[in-house]
Design brief:
- By secondary structure, the protein is mainly alpha-helical.
- It has a domain of 46 residues.
- Helices cover 53% and strands 0% of the residues.
- It contains three helices and no strands.
- The radius of gyration is 11 Å and the shape is globular.
- The relative contact order is 0.19.
Length: 70
């Protein structure tokens, strides 16, 4: 991952992301983005690419972790 990437601050490379979305993650996506398609698109990722979806799960889990800490 490029350290100058807008996503680099999320440290996505250190977060788990390979497992499928949980029900809680689907609910969080629905509340904040509508669905996984829109969430991935907002980060320039494609729902049609497995690597993009995996990166999206890492980003999502990082965002949820930050959100839970509020």
């Amino acid at each position: 991952m490029d350290v100058d990437s807008p996503r680099s601050h999320l440290f996505v490379s250190k977060m788990p992301g390979v497992g499928p979305l949980t029900e809680a993650e689907r609910e969080w996506l629905k509340k904040h983005y509508g669905n996984e398609f829109h969430f991935l698109g907002s980060y320039g990722l494609s729902i049609y690419k497995d690597d993009d979806r995996e990166e999206g799960r890492r980003i999502l889990r990082g965002l949820m972790s930050v959100d839970a800490g509020k």
